[in-house]
Amino acid sequence: MKINANKLRRHIVRKFCHTSGDSERLQALMEYTQHLNDYILSEGKKWQANLPELQFLSGTRTDLGPKFPARYYSYLDELDKGEDYEPVDDKEILQEVARFFRGSLRSGSPNALFNMLPEASIEATAAAWLVTTYNPNMLMDFFGGEALLIEQQVCRYIGKWAGWPQSMGIACNGGKFTLLYAIRLAISRMEPESAKTGLPRDLVILCSEGAHYCVEHAASLLGLGADNCLRVAGTKDGVMDPNELQRVLDEQHLNGRRIAAVICSGGTTINFNCEDTCKILQSINDFSIRHSLRQRPYLHLDSVIGWIYLSTLNMDSESIFAHFSEPETRKRIAEVQRRLEGISGFDSMGVDFHKNGLCPYASSFFIASDRRFMDELGDGNYKYCDKDFHYGQFRTYRYTFENSRPGQGILAAWVNLRRLGRRGYADYLALLHRARNSVSDALARHSFFRVLNESSLGWEVVFAILFAPDIISLSQSHEELAMSFMQECWERVNAGYNLPLFSIVPGYRINNDPENIITAFLVYPMRQYSDEEWDDIVKLIAAQVNDFQDRLRSQQLSIERIQIDRPVR
Ligand SMILES: *Cc1c(COP(=O)(O)O)cnc(C)c1O
């Protein structure tokens, strides 16, 4: 798009007196956004052009990589520079916008394979963008309008997949919020007075060993305390060990503790740990009856990733066959279907549309099987009744963490749900598994890669690099080699080379076996590519392994003791 600088300036100067939705303003927004984008792309290319060509891999500077080239700096030093920020001209604003993106992931890059990075659809992104331009507030429908109904329709839509005909919920900023809502709600249900009087001291929550690392922090933020979140040991299938679950439940009960909630895994980023929901339901019901509990522990499914499998719950074997052409994928889908069957008896679940719902950040939903949460998440002074559920009366701020709330995630999710429907998401799930199978096959074509997570029910690929024997003798451990190799790969991507950005998994448990541990690597395919394209991506990893080993042999490189933190995922 050609930018008319004067026109642009006119629009920008008029920054205090435009009208939302007026098409001239939208035009100006689009043009200015395009202008910013042209600038950051040209800056990115400039930074990249300063890089030396890689001798063993040419052509990795022609296109931008999975990251805008990064700059290394100290936060505290930068902040201490003590600049008096004077207003700057347009050109410097462009530079600041470009700086914002330095070192950040470019989700559109084919080499962005680090984690479950959203590949947002054009439709959902445009919808979210439009919400930004109109800027409605989701705190009540008098301000936010029908968006608040659509928020509930998203929840009902997915809730029905779980077998909850009365489901309602809350759009929120991330999966962690869905856990915060679940735990807070569980506490209120166990101890209704707590909304007014504060937390009782005898509550604990349980989750599985493989549950997301933020469960403890959620407990801590809520004042329950991280120590009152107990992890139950798992089996090789990545589910809570049923005997251990019984033991912990009874032990806590005997100690006079009340179990407010069991936070169940509904699929995790690595190994797709997913509880057998029927078994959990049975155990919790038995436990409650055995001890004549007044209130059964609250059951939440952390399905921020696994929700997409719910799209298949109503499929018979014939449609499974039609949707999932590969036998190994069909087996995985059938197993997850079986494990999720008990979800209809659960109280709530989490859904992250920004993970695998083809939506931009942040588009998470806490979905409850009914609407009791509206009262139970309140401050104890309000009960929702019929009159609240008419246009002009509906207010969410009484039960939400946030007061003013953004609406981008709501419209993005709804647009994709309506475009794709339940079957469309099942197709996307099929595509993800096809991608996993292609990547695994591509890795298997190289003798020094070994795929480790054959038994996972997800679509991630975890693999080991088998370094050559003479290389292993140069180092203290396989782990040290793996870490050094990862460090090198990350440094290249940070510098701006267009190479695969993948990840390392220190202490990976092969088949969830705590005795069978290795430092592994992780590739997260989120897109549809041909087998040849996956092959090319894997070749770029292989070329870096070869180079790493060559330089160690010729002593151009030595292994330094380095410490990589467990990467956040
Ligand atoms: C990603 C994830 C979370 C946290 O979600 P955010 O959207 O990053 O806040 C929680 N649980 C599981 C299983 C996850 O994969």
From TrEMBL:
Q: What is the species of this protein?
A: Kosakonia arachidis
Name the InterPro entries on file.
PyrdxlP-dep_de-COase, PyrdxlP-dep_Trfase, PyrdxlP-dep_Trfase_major
An example of a Gene Ontology cellular component annotation for this protein is: cytoplasm
A biological process from GO: carboxylic acid metabolic process
The identity of this protein, by name, is Glutamate or tyrosine decarboxylase
Query: Among its keywords, does the record have Lyase?
Result: yes
- Could you list this entry's UniProt keywords, alphabetically sorted: Decarboxylase, Lyase, Pyridoxal phosphate
Question: Which family is this protein grouped under?
Answer: Belongs to the group II decarboxylase family.
> Can the keyword Lyase be found in this entry's annotation?
yes
Q: Which residues carry this modification: N6-(pyridoxal phosphate)lysine?
A: K355
A Pfam family in this protein? Pyridoxal_deC
Q: Which GO terms describe its molecular function?
A: carboxy-lyase activity; pyridoxal phosphate binding
Q: Which domain of life is it from?
A: Bacteria
Cofactor requirements of the protein: pyridoxal 5'-phosphate
